[in-house]
Amino acid sequence: MKKSEVDTGILLETGTNELEILEFYIVETMDNGEEVKNYFGINVAKVMQVIETPNLDPPESAPHPSFMGTIPLRDLILPVLDLSVWLELEMPKTERDIVIVTEFSKSVTGFLVSGVTEIHRVGWGEVIPPSSVISQSTDAIVGLVDKGGRFIQLLDLETILTQIQPDMAHEFITASRQYKILVADDSATIRMMVEKNLTQANFLPCITNNGDEALRKAMSYKAQAEEEGNDITDYVDLVVSDIEMPLMDGFSLTKKLKEDPILGKLPVILYSSIITKELRHKGESVGANIQISKPDLHTIPEKALELIEGKTA
Questions:
Q1: Which of 102, 259, 267, 274 is the most buried (most CB within 10 A)?
Q2: pLDDT, tens digit, for every residue of 181-209?
Q3: Which part of the chain is the CheW-like domain (predicted)?
Q4: How far apart, in whole angstroms, are the C-alpha atoms of residue 178 and residue 242?
Q5: Above 60 in pLDDT, residue 3?
Q6: How far apart are CA 285 and CA 251, in angstroms?
Q7: Cα–Cα distances in Å, from 131 out to 23, 32, 135?
Q8: Selection from 25, 45, 24 nearest residue 36 by Cα
Q9: Which among 163, 186, 216 is the end of a domain?
Q10: Domain span at residue 135?
Q11: What does pTM read for this prediction?
């Protein structure tokens, strides 16, 4: 199945707080021998194609237990990861298994799973924070969608790659004063990374878990500014947000901020693992000042300083 067969062709209107997910499943063998299906979902935009299992034998010197080896695809050599190993599920291997080939964060990676089901169009408001339903063993599960008879667990695949292949250390600029940055991201791993980068650069970050929480925080800053007769920048100088988040995505957050007469003056930096031409256009249409991909998260302090000090239009 190629990407053209996966993509529904529906262009989601910017700011509608919606996304399309590819649902797939991993079969798990329980202690009593029973086999059950665990359902997961990822953003369709990250899927290149779906191929049959290459039946790889993991090398003895694998850099991670989930690493199965590499396969050729077109003009690429891509790594294949056994997603069941990462999620600690006892998945029986069969000839019917498939590999979902993804492209995001400037890398192409294959993920071995049991099978795919269908594509769903969902609103971020329908995505339930996982902590309210299940006990998480990994922060790669960023939300759940209730489909009646089953929950689809939404996976943040870049969190998995980040933990398998941590980024190299980067040199940061240092701000001359402690500018205040409001950050929104649903991944604990990415939140920690962004907070560390900003703190090292002498910024003062306020971390929130999603766009809805960030908007409520921004509105509280606005109320405080109006009550005390101060400028909004006395409380927050800039907003940094992931695009894909439960409850409210980064596009909707940016749109609501930019439509507000007070909060609209705040610069906004959006990031995602997939900054495509279409996504960049969507970000521009809601007023995002800068958009970057997740492999470039280390550039946020420099770009934030440029925006705050008026060096970037």
A1: 102
A2: 999 999 888 898 899 889 989 999 999 99
A3: 18-166
A4: 22
A5: no
A6: 9
A7: 21, 27, 6
A8: 25
A9: 163
A10: 3-163
A11: 0.67
